[in-house]
């Protein structure tokens, strides 16, 4: 299918672009950034490496594309909306955890991207900003839960940073030991955490 | 110094081995596993790539060596011993956090190794076992704090898994945003976490 060279029409081009994106995603989910090569993406697509170089002239172009794809898919993933206050905070934290195969793939790709991100100062700053934005969104939900009297007073930004730490570390543990951290246990652990936050006075 | 070829005596050999280890460590701390190449280690040592191939015939041998080095240095790092019960749990969690430049380097290398570890099933299992062992050690300390009445009752393994999640996620956030998570703030956040655990009834 891909051996025929470049696409002829705009529709072909977009369809192929989607297939390329899906192949990059599958390679990252299976092998991480360490295994993200033109050769691996070509094999996943059943295409030639030569075709791929039209899309990605360099390894760095492929990595940049993969990072953008990770951002896009994260931004467009479905979100829980079950309530306000503490329920909304819980929703946002559940949205991060690897509770489904899709969420496991994207978390696995996020964790694997940290190596690349930490070794590039610009990218590292960019990741720092992403996590700061995530904390800012959690801070709003903590403050709303405090207003409803569901969480005790205290600096909401500090509580949000703690909650983000808790779920990020739980992601890492669940990825390395899925048998010890099935979805139900992750949810129980998060609920324990929220219960201790609520109870603390 | 390194251009002269292989070492002549056992003492030379061991001294060189230490220098090679240090160079591998420095490359990983600066560039992660993504940047760990024979060329980078050779440059760090001011040696030829040819010399390095005596130690590491393949990239995989270099990666395995780096992973072993990370294990050794983690096992031999200094540990806090300030007390029993909750103080001992706090010590173990503080020992994990990037509170010094040395602890920052080793955490940065650990986080960067996750990409490699997740893409290799055996290594992934091995990492899962390492974290399970870490949780088992924390579980003993949680149980001891419970016996002293410093922590409320509840499954100590589940509390330990929560505490490990909290510090691992805090490590990741502190690596990406050291300005937002200076050592003092990390310690305050950990103390907040332990205080909410202690207060929960």
TrEMBL record, chains A, B:
<dbReference type="GO" id="GO:0003700">
    <property type="term" value="F:DNA-binding transcription factor activity"/>
</dbReference>
<dbReference type="GO" id="GO:0000976">
    <property type="term" value="F:transcription cis-regulatory region binding"/>
</dbReference>
<keyword id="KW-0678">Repressor</keyword>
<dbReference type="Pfam" id="PF13977">
    <property type="entry name" value="TetR_C_6"/>
</dbReference>
<protein>
    <submittedName>
        <fullName>TetR family transcriptional regulator</fullName>
    </submittedName>
</protein>
<dbReference type="InterPro" id="IPR009057">
    <property type="entry name" value="Homeodomain-like_sf"/>
</dbReference>
<dbReference type="InterPro" id="IPR023772">
    <property type="entry name" value="DNA-bd_HTH_TetR-type_CS"/>
</dbReference>
<feature type="DNA-binding region" description="H-T-H motif">
    <location>
        <begin position="37"/>
        <end position="56"/>
    </location>
</feature>
<dbReference type="InterPro" id="IPR039538">
    <property type="entry name" value="BetI_C"/>
</dbReference>
<dbReference type="InterPro" id="IPR050109">
    <property type="entry name" value="HTH-type_TetR-like_transc_reg"/>
</dbReference>
<keyword id="KW-0804">Transcription</keyword>
<dbReference type="InterPro" id="IPR036271">
    <property type="entry name" value="Tet_transcr_reg_TetR-rel_C_sf"/>
</dbReference>
<keyword id="KW-0805">Transcription regulation</keyword>
<keyword id="KW-0238">DNA-binding</keyword>
<feature type="domain" description="HTH tetR-type">
    <location>
        <begin position="14"/>
        <end position="74"/>
    </location>
</feature>
<dbReference type="InterPro" id="IPR001647">
    <property type="entry name" value="HTH_TetR"/>
</dbReference>
<dbReference type="Pfam" id="PF00440">
    <property type="entry name" value="TetR_N"/>
</dbReference>
């Amino acid at each position: 299918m891909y051996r025929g060279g470049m696409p002829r029409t705009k529709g072909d081009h977009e369809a192929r672009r989607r297939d390329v994106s899906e192949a990059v995603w599958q390679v990252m989910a299976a092998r991480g950034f360490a295994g993200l090569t033109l050769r691996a993406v070509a094999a996943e697509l059943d295409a030639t490496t030569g075709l791929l170089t039209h899309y990605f002239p360099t390894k760095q172009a492929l990595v940049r594309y993969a990072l953008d794809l990770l951002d896009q898919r994260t931004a467009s993933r479905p979100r829980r909306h079950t309530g306000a206050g503490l329920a909304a905070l819980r929703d946002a934290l559940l949205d991060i955890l690897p509770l489904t195969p899709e969420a496991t793939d994207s978390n696995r790709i996020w964790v694997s991207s940290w190596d690349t991100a930490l070794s590039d100062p610009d990218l590292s700053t960019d990741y720092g900003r992403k996590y700061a934005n995530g904390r800012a969104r959690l801070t709003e939900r903590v403050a709303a839960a405090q207003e409803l009297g569901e969480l005790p007073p205290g600096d909401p930004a500090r509580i949000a940073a703690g909650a983000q730490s808790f779920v990020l570390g739980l992601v890492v543990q669940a990825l390395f030991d899925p048998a010890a951290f099935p979805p139900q246990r992750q949810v129980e652990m998060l609920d324990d955490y929220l219960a201790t936050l609520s109870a603390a006075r």
